[in-house]
Amino acid sequence: MMNETERNNYLAAMQIDTWLPRVILPNAAPSIINTDSAVISESFISQSVLKKVTEEIIVDVTIEEKVTTIEPIIVEQPYTPEITPLATSSDETPHFSLQLMQAGRCLLLVELPTGTAFQIRDPAYQLLRNILRAAKLPDSPQLLGDIVHWPLFKQISIPQGTKEAQEFLQSFISTYQEQATDSCCLWLIGLSTIRYTIGLDEQDYYQTPIVDLLGQTLLSPSLELLIDNPQYKANLWQSIRQLIPLWQV
Prior knowledge:
249 residues; rod-shaped; alpha/beta
C-alpha cells in the first residue's frame, strides 16, 4: 500500500494541492511522518518520480485522444461522367410516303398519311375522285410505280436528308413525265409532296408555279385537310379553274 509521503508526492506532481498540519491536531490519530517541520513542496519531489508520473499522464492522455477522437470517414463519390448531347444534323432525315398517279394529262403526287395505298372506299380516295371529276379529268387515276417510302434505305448509313429527297423525287417524276409525253401539269397534293419535291411550304397552297425540270405545277393541301376544312376546297377550286384549259387542249 502506498505510504503517505509517496501519495502526496503523486498528488503534487499532478498539481493537486495538499495541506499537512504544522502542529498535532487535537484528538487526531498519530501521524506516520513527522509533520512538525516538514512542508511538502515540489523541491522535495524526486525528479525520477516526476518524470515517471508525467510520462504516465502523457500516455494516458494520448490513449484517451485516440479512443475518443474519431476520424471522419471520407466516402468517395461515384464517378458520374458528363453527358454531352450528340450534335444533331441540321438536315434531319424526313419521313413520308407518296404515291404517283396519272389522270389524263396530269400527274398527281399524293401524300399517304398511313403509308399504305388508297382503298376504293377510303373517304380521301373518294374525295380525290370527286375533285378530278370536277376538274374534267378521269376519275380513276392510274398508279405509276410503287409507293415511295422515305428514307429509302433503312440499314445503310448514307445521307437521306431534304436535299437528297428532293433530288430523288424530281428524278423519279421526270422519268414518268418523259414516258407520258402528253402530260402538261404536275399536281402536288399534301405538304410532304410540296416540301420535299420543290422546297415550298403550306403558305404556298393553291399556287401554280412553273418549276424547272417539272414544268407547270399545282400545289394542294392534303386530302385529309380538304375533308376537315371545307373552305380549303373553295380555294383549291379557284386554282383548278385557271388550269382546266391547259389539260383540255
